[in-house]
Amino acid sequence: MKNPKEVHGQVRVTVILECTGCDKKSVNKESTGISRYITQKNRHNTPSRLELRKLCSRCCKHKIHAEIKK
After folding, report:
1. 42, 67 in Cβ contact below 8 A?
2. Do 17 and 57 form a contact (C-beta atoms < 8 A)?
3. How far apart are CA 28 and CA 63, in angstroms?
4. What kind of architecture, by CATH, is found in domain 4-68?
5. What is the spatial distance between Cα 6 and Cα 2, in angstroms, rounded to a whole number?
6. What is the reported pTM?
7. Which segments of the chain does DSSP mark as H helices, in order?
8. 24-49 pLDDT, tens digit each
């Protein structure tokens, strides 16, 4: 019998969180001036896009970091 995780894919996925405040100010999205975090989320518990308040290294303030597409 196969493992349920192997049949339906992985439950935990790696996501990238990007600062929403710096994202609006920046013209070039690929620049290194945007604060980004890499984390994991559980697809069953959090099916929608993940948003967390994290410290923005560029602004030096706690701002909302939202999940972006890879």
Report:
1. no
2. no
3. 20
4. Single Sheet (2.20)
5. 7
6. 0.71
7. 4-8, 20-25
8. 655 455 555 788 999 999 999 999 99
